[in-house]
Structure formats: C-alpha cells, structure tokens
Amino acid sequence: MNLPLGRDTATECNTELSEPIKIVDLFAGPGGLGEGFASLGGGTRFEIVVSAEMDPVARETLKLRAFYRLLKLKKPDRLCDYYNFCNGHSQQPFTEASKAQWQEAEEEARCITLGSDKGDTELDTILAKQRLEDRPWVLIGGPPCQAYSIVGRARNQAKANYSAENDHRHFLYKEYLRIIKERKPAVFVMENVKGILSSKVAGKSIFAQILQDLTDPNKALGEKKTGTKYRICSLVTDQSFGPDDDVSLVDPRGFIIKAEEHGIPQARHRVILLGIA
Predict the structure, then answer these.
(1) Residue 48: strand pairing partners
(2) Distances (CA, A) of 175 to 63, 116, 184, 186
(3) What's the pTM?
(4) How far is CA 44 from CA 10, 32, 50, 70, 110, in A?
C-alpha cells in the first residue's frame, strides 16, 4: 500500500529521532492502542503526553502502565517497585525512589469525561501546555463503542422509547473531531468495533458520516474558515477516502483489520482509520 506521505517512509523509520513523537490518546480505555505506539523502538519513538479516559478503573490501568514505561526509560533499577506491586508484595506501586515517576504517570493518565464542559476545558489546558504546534504529533483513540456494537445496539433496541438520534454516544466522535480541527495533528488513528459499519442514525450510515467529517473537520463542525483536510486510509488495503470523493463508492469492509491475519492469536476484528494531513 502506498500512502501519500510525500517521503520515503522506510528511510524515515530507520532515522533516529531527536525526540519522541508526541501522542494524544482520547477515549483511551485501558490503553491498548497507546501501548502499541509507546512500545515501538523500546519506548523511544513515541511519547504519550496524555491519555484521556472517563472510566476510573480503566484510568488506573493507564496510570500503572505509564508508570512502567517511565521506570523503564528513566529509572530501570526501580522496575522492582512495579513488579512487587503487580505480584502483591507491596500495597502501593511506588517507593520513595520511584515516587517522581508515579507522579508523572498521574499527569499522563487523566480521568476526563470528554464532551463535558469540565472535561473539555481540562483537556484543552493540557494540550495548550504541550505546544503541539511546534512539531508533528499524532492523535489516537476511539469513541465509545456501545452505541455502534451489534450487542450494544440489540440492548438499546430492547429499551423502551430508545432513539438512536438522541443517544449522545453516537456523536462523541465529534469530540475527537474537535481536537483534529483545533490542534491539527499530522496523523490520526481512529479505532472502533466492526459494528460501526452497519450502524445507522435516522436511516443514514454513521460510518459514512464519520468518514466525510474526518476529511474536513472545519466543515463538519460548521466553521466557515477552511482548515486542514485529511485523506483517510486503510491499513490493510489500497482503499482511501478524501474530501472530494464520493462516499457511496467506498467499501467499508476495506477498513477492517482481522487480527488473525496478522500473526495475532485471536479473532479480533476492528475498524481502524488512518488520517493523513
């Protein structure tokens, strides 16, 4: 697959970075997507600067994994603190010698409810301090899947007076879209369940709407001013979608990644969209 990056990506991958590429992870869950980025190159190629997740239990996992990565990079001699905690040998994950890394992990992994005034303000404050405009960075994450998954939709239909149009979870992707519009990442990766391909709101495909919105965030959010536009690419086929393309010609199945076809011992199917400015 040839991505329109405008440079030799093979050469780029072998070039030492002066500093890691910053990652912002929205709707992070327990951090599986971020973990993949952060582990590349022994943790030296990408740096998660914030993981935003509303569930406090998932946030604890995010925080513990952030602590592990920080110890590995900055204080490997104290990895024993992490392992002692995981194995039940200590009541807290840090000691006085690793307290600074634990505090860094707390700063990285945030319990934030995106879509709320308080949550959006907190995230915006964090991102402003990161000065993301200074160099290319990557946005990752996936809006909550309960409204899109086949199981979730079946549960919703069993509820009296349920209306997809009034289920705010269908539109939480616009919080992701808002960050794209305002902060202009060079690349973004959005992940969701396969059920999103057949999910509909008011009889229209939510996946087709998301595709169109992601290519032109300014237009999607009602901005009159022209902003950064993106091409949405598949990671497993040659299929891509741009701002002026006909969405009716898109085969949504081309964006499904089947884990078992890529050396992973599980039948996990996910839709992953790669956006490139």
Answers:
(1) 23
(2) 22, 10, 14, 18
(3) 0.86
(4) 18, 18, 16, 11, 22
DSSP string, 134-168: GS--EEEE---STTTSHHHHHHHHTSTT--GGG-G
Residues 6+ apart with CB under 8 A from 134: none
Burial 148-183 (b: 16+ CB within 10 A, else e): bbeebbeebeeeeeeebeebebbbbbbbbbbbbbeb
Q: Which residues are 50's β-sheet partners?
A: 24
Residue 227, both tokens? 């902003």
Length of the chain: 277
What residues are paired with 117 via a beta bridge?
Answer: none
How would you classify the pairing of strands 204-205 and 240-241?
A: unpaired
Question: What is the pLDDT of the chain when averaged over all its residues?
Answer: 87
Q: Are 207 and 196 in contact (CB under 8 A)?
A: yes
Question: Confidence class of residue 226 from pLDDT cuts 50, 70 and 90?
Answer: very high
Any idea which residue has 């149009």 for tokens?
165
Q: Is the pLDDT of residue 33 over 80?
A: yes
